[in-house]
Amino acid sequence: MTDTRPPYAGTRYPRLAETPAFTEHIAAGWGNGPVPATTVPGAAAAAAAHRDRLSERLPGQAVVVASGTAPVRNDDNDYPFRADSDFTWLTGGQIEGAVLVMTPRPGGHDARLHMPPPFRPGDTGFFADAAHGELWVGASPGLPEWSDALGLPVQDLADLTVPSGALTTGSAGAALVTEHGLEPSPLLDRHLSRLRMIKDPWEIQQLRDAVDATVTGFAAVAAEIPRAIGDGLGERWLQGTFDRHARTQGNGTGYTTIVGSGPHAPTLHWVRCDGPVLPDEVLLLDMGVEARSLYTADVTRTLPASGTFSPRQRDVHDLVEKAHRAGLAQIRPGTEYLDFHFAAMEVIATGLHDWGLLPVSVDEALSPGGQQHRRYLACGIGHHLGLDVHDCGKAEYEDYMGAPLAPGVVMTVEPGLYFHANDLTVPPELRGIGVRLEDDVLVTAAGSEVLSAGLPIDADGIEAWTKAQQR
């Protein structure tokens, strides 16, 4: 019988990197020149100013900040890479595995960037590294291209030297801790959070762009509500609609999109989005586009899926709107950060008391030892906004909670009421209603500006807007 098997049948299949004929052949014959590094216009100049601000805070102190790497999703699949926010704020770049080094000198700091060079033809990683090899992921800018784009000297990561006593940040710097003996510095984290509280004009424009894209994303979602109901596509369809919009108009979403219909609306972080869209219930949408610069919006509206609120749904929405307006009225220079919180909470507690839902007086509920009204609003009702949806999270309490607001602060105001379907302390007609209103607000020299004002906040306006998107 003739043996028809190929000549290598039954032998150990060779590793390509160990096959000289292959490695010689794949290393040659490639065209194309350098790939330019792309950054958001103005990002490098803004980052240089940010480094100057940090340098003023930490004279004589070396600083090392890493961009991080993509986390593993499962097995050999990674999540998409998203650069560490502090790294992006200080460099204007989004480079996986990169490290910024700021070395003190008289009058300031010298900055340099270290990054892993791309695997080009002739490198084993070109064909052997599925996560970073150009044969797998496409051509990438190299060190000279990133240096030109960011206005920084850029060197090979293999040449990284860490100054003695350097401060580094938290999770993104884990490899630095392991390889170079550094310790994450709460002091550096705190300084960066405090600096990032005040946005410069370039950052404010990035947030404007993110909010504007989010407003049009809400319109895209509202237009799909009839299909989500009629075709049985449910919450997933609406979540996917916004996520596609965010990826098209920006980098993606700034956080996992929340779409909660009916009994899911009171669940604060309903990101599963695996239920139906119920035609006679409210639909809570908490969504934000992350711009390509990584600055994100964070906006919430609660829509009547049918286009019209029921009387009880409107009652809840009206109370939340009243609290929302009370909070917005406190956003201006000189007021303390928590003033908006207390103003909104007083409205909520008073309304709940009037409905007979509080077992104590309004004053007792609002006292530090009371807080019974928080059963229906257990979360906070606002936060800083920027590169992170909950921006400046490493600041200490006294850095912002009792500090006066200043021009350049961007924050959210987001009161709500959440009556869970299984909450026996509320009458049946309220169970399963969740309402939140969230706007992104810029503190200005004269007061404040609601960046997300393109979306209405009153019940009549929301009904009319919802119906208009579906015509």
Short summary of the structure?
This protein has helices at residues 20-27, 43-57, 85-91, 125-128, 134-137, 143-150, 174-180, 186-196, 201-223, 225-230, 234-249, 311-328, 339-354, 362-366, 397-400, 459-469, and strands at 63-66, 72-74, 77-78, 99-105, 108-115, 154-156, 167-168, 252-253, 258-261, 282-287, 289-290, 299-304, 410-413, 416-419, 433-436, 439-443, 448-450. By secondary structure, it is an alpha+beta fold.
Overview of this structure, please?
The chain has 471 residues and is an alpha+beta fold. It folds into 2 domains: 16-195, Creatinase/prolidase N-terminal domain (Creatine Amidinohydrolase, Chain A, domain 1, 3-Layer(aba) Sandwich), CATH 3.40.350; 198-470, Alpha-Beta Complex (Creatine Amidinohydrolase), CATH 3.90.230. The chain has 16 helices and 17 strands. It has helices at 20-27, 43-57, 85-91, 125-128, 134-137, 143-150, 174-180, 186-196, 201-223, 225-230, 234-249, 311-328, 339-354, 362-366, 397-400, 459-469; strands at residues 63-66, 72-74, 77-78, 99-105, 108-115, 154-156, 167-168, 252-253, 258-261, 282-287, 289-290, 299-304, 410-413, 416-419, 433-436, 439-443, 448-450. A 5-stranded mixed β-sheet has the order 6-5-4-1-7. The chain has a 3-stranded antiparallel β-sheet with strand order 9-10-12. Helix 2 packs across helix 3 and helix 12 (311-328) packs antiparallel against helix 13. It starts with 19 loop residues before the first helix and ends with a helix. InterPro entries: Aminopep_P_N (IPR007865), Creatin/AminoP/Spt16_N (IPR029149), Creatinase/aminopeptidase-like (IPR036005), Pept_M24 (IPR000994), X-Pro_dipept-like (IPR052433). Keywords: Aminopeptidase, Hydrolase, Manganese, Metal-binding, Protease. This is Xaa-Pro aminopeptidase.
